[in-house]
Amino acid sequence: KKVWRFYRRLAGRQGSLKRTLGQFPAYSIADARAWAAELNKQIEAGCDPREVERAQIEAQRSADLRATMTVARAHGLYIKAAHQGRASRAKRQNKPRTISDKMYIYSADIAPALADKPIHDVTEADLVKLVQAKGANAPVRANRLAAERPRCFAEPAGQDHRRSDRAGEIQ
Fold this sequence. Notes:
two-stranded antiparallel ribbon, 9% strand, mainly alpha, 6 helices
């Protein structure tokens, strides 16, 4: 079987670069030349094609994770961290009552509206709307929901939703 291969020594102590494109019938000679020219261009520009490939793979992996991280999945990770004591500033395990309250707030207030939504698509307006809707008929529960909001959403989404006056958002 015939395989398209690329071999080039790299400057300095970087060694050599060996890459395989694939078998001959699957890739034409024009495809192989274009592929090799791109690798040569990267090397001559001072980039290591292996590092470029690793960066592309990492970017794809990050994009895939971002697309699959729903509110439900993020909340599951948050509750797991809360059980282990990693979800609070005190870094101690939460009491069972606290965990059950967090689960109730999620299942009754957050999950019906946002469970299947990617967490990176959740906006501050979505969260404020949840708190205001709950505040219309249950102000105490709305305050608890508002207090839980930054804990649930800030870390997994990489966003900071904290407000100094949570009760003021309910009006």
